[in-house]
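Lab notes, practical 5.
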Amino acid sequence: MQQQSKIKFDVKLPLILIHTPYGLKFFDKIAQTNAAKFYAKFTTYLMPIITALALFLIIGGIVALFSSSVAREGVRGIGPQSNLLIPGLNPYLPIADGWIALVITIIIHEAGHGIVARVHGVKVESTGIVLLFILPIGAFVNIEREEMEKISIKQKSSIMTAGPMSNIILAVVSLLGIFIITSSLTVVQPSNPNIFGISITGVGQKSLAESLGLTKGSIIQQIQNKNMKTINELNGNLSANLGNTISITWLNDKGEKITKPATLPKERIPGKGILGVTIIEISDPKKVLNTYNSLFASNPIALLAPPTIAQGSVPYSSLLQEKYSSPIFGTNFAIPANFLFWIWFINFNVAIFNALPIGPLDGGQLYSTIIDKKTEGKKGILRHASKMLTYGTIIIVALAFVVPWLMR
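Output from the prediction step:
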């Protein structure tokens, strides 16, 4: 049994760490169960699999950015802050659901470390909360470092992997919850064949669209009296008329048809649209629902697309939710669906990020231990193998951030 510590404050502004004894008895109790002992064995060899998945997704994203100007422009459009899992700073993370999901994610992650550490007899000195000034942004468990140095690599692997693996399990459970909700939905507002065009989901400040009177919810239907049914058609027509005055016809959010002349800029500014809007194609609600539900079996990674970005393809997005109803939650199904989505999204991303072989991360600590033991006493470049692995991974991650701005 561990000795309980007192509450302590560790101030490293802007961060404040509050060390507490809370949860230590819980770790001890759970660690004695057969389920915890099985979980400790289960996690022993899984870190390389999670790391491989993380690198596969990051490198795949980099390849897509190198090969597609559309992808680069899309990333530039949403900004680099969209890569950060900080609600309020990331414009696509909702404040309430985002913070709740983030705190739950970190608690689950650290509890995984703490319970498996106790399974292996390693002392957990304290649990705690991390504050950004007065705002809670996470939690932690403080595991005795000297005891971690004495245990075997297998035991350390088990402890280090338990955090990311706990996040993956919660992510999968949340994804299952989303599937239960979306598979029960029925369409209550079928598509109207007389309504076509490109729907506007956002209008930039001081943009051409704002000056014309286009608003969120407007539907662009014609450019120069030509029907626009796809984003490619719209982009093609706008690009072909740069510097010209054209007519644009749209339906406003009240269903009124409006036609106005618009003088387009002479050239397209990199990273910005010609009209200054975010748009989606109008889709058949039934097709959207069927396509989304098919992804659970065919490509669950595609379900990481946030409903705040992929509004036209997510049934519980603010744009589409009114078109469906659930026998369980009625028209309020989007509330639990969105909450479960952010649990799934944040847990998955935290899990794979922590598995990367970067110094202080779970993966970095484990791989450094293995490499340092294998290269102990070696001379030359092998002495720096763990640092080289960390720096190499940092470069790969950095590329995912900078490629959209390096390649215009």
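Observations recorded by the TA: The two ends are 60 Å apart (CA to CA). Residues 286-339 form one domain.
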